[in-house]
From TrEMBL:
Coiled coil: none annotated. InterPro entries: ARM-type_fold (IPR016024), GUN4-like (IPR008629), GUN4-like_sf (IPR037215), GUN4_N (IPR032192). It comes from the Bacteria. This is GUN4-like family protein.
Length: 236
């Protein structure tokens, strides 16, 4: 094969094959190329999402949904409204809390606004007193329903290519022997003796290290985050 042939971009059938059979890394790589094909590409991504609808959602579903959402093409938006009205993550809540606003922010990669809203949702889970004070006690975290924490976490996971979420922070925390002093620089919450300053020193995009988001205020100590990362939601 000559050099010119090797430089030819893959055709749409090859891209579709890579999407359906490739590794997660390949799937992430080919999605934008498929989207660039216009209507034919939209159809491939739509069918791909539909084919996975009965499976637990992953960041592959999240990325596919995000790309389609960003097209602003009326037919594509109608498809998403019909089949994925509340996104690709089931918004389960034992306390009838509305997680759709959080889903919408994360699907648009609005991570700073989503982080603020996550705290608000935790306050809702804690009750009226927490809503008024705008922060939570670790004893309240222990009473959070499993489905609610799993919903919040799954939204973060699915819309961050698997980089963000409490389950990611828990995994990193366990990997360093539950040593907070080792964890903080690993997730870029502290550098040396200096805590990362909110909001400008935090990274509000996917260039951040794994586990960087969502945030938890450590000025009051580690009890809240300890309660979150020790919650039975991650082992049930």
């Amino acid at each position: 094969m000559d050099a010119s042939a090797q430089s030819q971009p893959p055709d749409i059938a090859e891209l579709e094959s890579q999407l359906n059979t490739g590794s997660e890394k390949i799937q992430l790589q080919v999605m934008p190329d498929i989207l660039a094909q216009g209507e034919a590409g939209y159809a491939i991504l739509q069918n791909f999402l539909l084919s996975r609808q009965q499976e637990p959602s992953t960041f592959i579903d999240g990325r596919c949904y995000e790309l389609l959402l960003g097209t602003e093409v009326p037919a594509v938006q109608s498809f998403l409204q019909e089949h994925f009205e509340s996104g690709v993550v089931p918004l389960r809540s034992e306390q009838n809390i509305d997680y759709l606003p959080l889903q919408r922010l994360l699907a648009k990669q609005s991570f700073q606004a989503a982080d603020d809203l996550t705290l608000s949702k935790l306050c809702e889970l804690s009750g009226p007193a927490a809503i008024k004070r705008k922060w939570i006690y670790f004893t309240e975290v222990e009473q959070y329903p499993i489905p609610d924490l799993q919903t919040i976490n799954q939204l973060w996971l699915v819309h961050s290519e698997g980089k963000f979420g409490y389950s990611v922070q828990r995994q990193l925390w366990l990997s360093v022997g539950r040593n907070w002093d080792v964890l903080w620089p690993k997730i870029n919450w502290r550098s040396g003796r200096n805590w990362t300053r909110w909001p400008d020193e935090f990274t509000w995009d996917l260039s951040a290290p794994r586990g960087h988001l969502p945030l938890s205020n450590q000025l009051r100590g580690v009890q809240v985050l300890n309660a979150l990362l020790s919650h039975p939601a991650w082992t049930s």
